[in-house]
Amino acid sequence: MAYEYTVVKGDTLFRIARRTGITVGELAGANPQIQGSILYPGQVLTVPDPIPRHYVVQRGDTFYEIARRFNIALDDLLRANPGVDPARMAIGTRLILPPSRGMSIVGPAFPYGYPELLEDLQLLQIRYPFLEYIDIGESVLGKPIPAFKVGDGPVQVHVNAAIHANEWITAAVVMKIAEDLSEAYRNGVPLQGRDVRALLSKVTLWIAPMLNPDGVELVQEGLSAGHPYYRQLLEWNGGSYDFSGWKANIRGVDLNDQFPAGWEIERNRRAVAGPGPRDWTGTAPLTEPEAIAVADFTRNNDFRLVLALHTQGQEIYYTYRGLEPPVSAEIAANFARVSGYTPVANIESDAGYKDWFIQEYRLPGFTIESGKGTNPLPTDQFPAIKREVTGILLEALAAAPDVEPAGE
Ligand SMILES: [Zn+2]
Predict the structure, then answer these.
(1) Do the beta carbons of residue 146 and residue 209 sit within 8 Å?
(2) pLDDT in tens, 143-174
(3) Where are the beta strands (DSSP E) in 178-234?
(4) How far is the CA of 70 from the centre of ligand 1 (A)?
């Protein structure tokens, strides 16, 4: 039986469809009045029943092949057909096809926000029990900031994403890559021609997919009436309800201007008077819990190489005031080869995460400006960015230096 659903804050068609087990198309089809408009809390939608589907087994079919063809997880197909022995399926057997959650877990689902991230993390961990995840801290609004590891090698590599709110596509990208890596690792198959098992027996990759969850939520969902920073955010955003240009955390601090590496220089260069959508360094380095979380996480581990994933520009920043090791240029050139991005040696930048990492450890640190256009990037760039960043990440795993950090 179809039923009524009342929209709550944060709902998108995708989120409701996913929660109710139907497709976005089915949900939109049952609610023609919402065409092209944004959902608002209190709005009542009709949630239709999932359309039941069947498939009659043909000569030569295998259970696995059918699951693949209909984009259904093997587990789901098995569960929906408890009386069927996958090894001896008679021609003419009528199989129930459960709703497709996709063979894959991560998207592509946009907007990709904090709820999607948490759900995907949970599902990934069920499918790939070797993934271990922890919280590295909490955002200003109390959201746990997750990080998880793939691989079990002695050399640690770290990648983080979505430190800038309107660059949230980077969270979807690293999550999807984590899934691809996990699948290749489990099955012992290559990814972009690389032997993932060999790489991940040398390296442990720590992924922090969304460092700024409050900011991502603001960009994706806008300002809701009960928001604890309602008045400030509106003021800091120049009175506009359009937060698509918002990069900062929820206190209007640009988290990538928060690190103690030339922080005063950055503050003077930015010359921003106070909280706002971007470029406000805060009143001192490391005042914001999200920046503190990733700094502490870095200090508590032994990362030999780090990548900070941003959008946009298709560029690779690999220097910091000449403190980077010589091998950084070589690694950046290899990143460029596999991604088509441009290595950029000298940019006017201080107080960024990679700046601080290079200064503290004299090890290779990179800011990857993926994709090209105006942030938030159009989501049709997702496949290309995923391919390019996969190449860079695999190269990073191969290149991670197995040496003692200098300066200790
Ligand atoms: Zn950025």
Answers:
(1) yes
(2) 999 999 999 999 999 999 999 999 999 999 99
(3) 203-208
(4) 38
CA of 184 to the centre of ligand 1 (A): 29
CB 157, CB 205: distance < 8 Å? yes
CA of 202 to the centre of ligand 1 (A): 30
- pLDDT grade, residue 52 (50/70/90)? low
At residue 103, the 3 state secondary structure works out as coil
Helix axes 169-187, 114-127, angle to 10 degrees: 0
Which residue segments constitute the domains of the chain, with CATH numbers given? 3-47 (3.10.350.10), 56-97 (3.10.350.10), 114-214+287-399 (3.40.630.10)
CA of 167 to the centre of ligand 1 (A): 6
d(Cα 116, Cα 176) in Å, to the nearest integer? 12
300-350 residue pLDDT tens: 999 999 999 999 999 999 999 999 999 999 999 999 999 999 999 977 899
- Buried b or exposed e, range 142-176, using 16+ CB within 10 angstroms: ebebbbbbbbebebbbbbbbbbbbbbbbbbbbbbb
Catalytic residues: 369
Name the DSSP letter for residue 1: -
Q: Which two tokens stand for residue 319?
A: 């220097």
Q: Rounded distance, CA 14 to CA 102, Å?
A: 14
